[in-house]
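Exercise 7b. Backbone tokens:
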């Protein structure tokens, strides 16, 4: 009986905590996969009892899904213009906040890409090159821009294999379905990929900036956890994770 009463007391004490627990789902660009997983893990240590989950994919597709009522509370886009459009259309509960500038790289798991340039992709020995779909994936759009600026698009277009997002493009290269890929630096330096191959930065002068931004969606207007997580992105702990994955933070200079 004493043990049962203790159990009831414990439930009573936990009741308010359970009632206050919040849950958020983040729609995040695929380049954030490894960095965001770490940020969520460190955030969760200081916010026990709350639930933060992330879904990764194409920024353009996520914007369309949010417009159609998808249940996302925060939206982290690899192109800041996507969340800006949501704000303009009254579908966000916050202003757009820039969180990083991304970089694209040439990466391969089957050959040494560290000394490669875009011009090397025209070699006959390279027959399959993976990039994200330029129609809705910002990293794919920037890859297309860089290839066109280099005069290579028409030469290598028949070799291109399009991933739904930059994460899938990286997967194609990692599994051997493509020999080389133009992917996000943040993925190339991740433990999952850095152990498989090297990379070479694509000059950012060849493409538009990958300025990235996020918003709290209209759905999460009254969810305090969404605001807390957004604020956490500015903390030293979160910033150090982003820098470690190769992101340039707002106000910092891009190292060429």
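Sequence design result:
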């Amino acid at each position: 009986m004493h043990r049962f009463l203790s159990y009831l007391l414990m439930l009573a004490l936990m009741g308010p905590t359970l009632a206050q627990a919040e849950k958020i789902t983040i729609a995040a660009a695929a380049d954030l996969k490894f960095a965001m997983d770490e940020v969520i893990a460190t955030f969760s240590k200081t916010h026990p009892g709350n639930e933060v989950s992330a879904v990764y994919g194409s920024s353009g597709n996520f914007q369309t899904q949010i417009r159609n009522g998808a249940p996302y509370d925060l939206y982290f886009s690899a192109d800041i213009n996507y969340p800006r459009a949501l704000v303009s259309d009254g579908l966000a509960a916050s202003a757009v906040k820039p969180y990083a500038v991304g970089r694209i790289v040439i990466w391969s798991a089957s050959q040494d890409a560290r000394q490669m340039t875009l011009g090397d992709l025209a070699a006959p020995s390279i027959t399959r090159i993976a990039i994200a779909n330029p129609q809705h994936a910002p990293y794919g759009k920037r890859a297309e821009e860089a290839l066109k600026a280099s005069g290579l698009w028409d030469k290598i277009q028949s070799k291109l294999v399009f991933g739904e997002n930059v994460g899938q493009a990286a997967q194609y290269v990692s599994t051997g379905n493509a020999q080389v890929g133009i992917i996000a630096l943040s993925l190339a330096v991740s433990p999952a990929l850095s152990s498989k191959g090297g990379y070479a930065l694509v000059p950012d002068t060849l493409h538009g900036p990958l300025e990235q931004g996020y918003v709290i969606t209209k759905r999460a207007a009254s969810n305090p956890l969404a605001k807390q997580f957004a604020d956490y992105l500015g903390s030293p702990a979160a910033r150090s994770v982003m820098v470690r994955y190769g992101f340039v933070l707002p106000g910092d200079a891009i190292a060429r």
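Instructor comment: The chain has two domains: 20-101+209-244, 102-206. The longest strand covers residues 23-29.
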